[in-house]
Amino acid sequence: MDTRFVRNAALTAAIAGFISLGAAAQSGMGSDQSSTSSASAGQSGSSQLSPSDKTFIKKAAEGGMAEVELGKLAAEKGSSEEVKKFGQRMVEDHSKANDQLKQVASSKGVEVPADLNAKDKATKARLSKLSGEQFDKAYMSDMVKDHQQDVAEFRKESKMAKDPEVKSFASQTLPVIED
User: Is the pLDDT higher at 154 or at 28?
Assistant: First the structure.
């Protein structure tokens, strides 16, 4: 019984951390959209972007799209109310970030993927087959692992991006992901 309590406590702590991530995203991401939009008005064309900036945009778009799709799945299949709420928060927050990123990509002439990549499709298929506590645990585990990777990529891009608009997007989004 003690190990189940510890697992549930760890899951609850992870969920609480991610829920605060969503709250930070709601308060932080929308406020800078106007500056992002106005900055993009003066720049266009992907020829201005370095290959690493283009790669970051595409990977961030893929990841954001996956977060939305998996969040929808969690909102539907989650067994705990916390996981369902977290899934819905991921849908809302990542949809906002995805919209911001699409504006940046469009202003730079970078086409973002319209569908999940093979890895994310496989993750969705795997999670779709789970239910109850198994689903909750697997989903949250994937979210923790994915966000750790995202932090590393966004941190690097926030320091190393050549394009100021891409750098700004990464810098603004990083604290939300880190949270």
Answer: 154
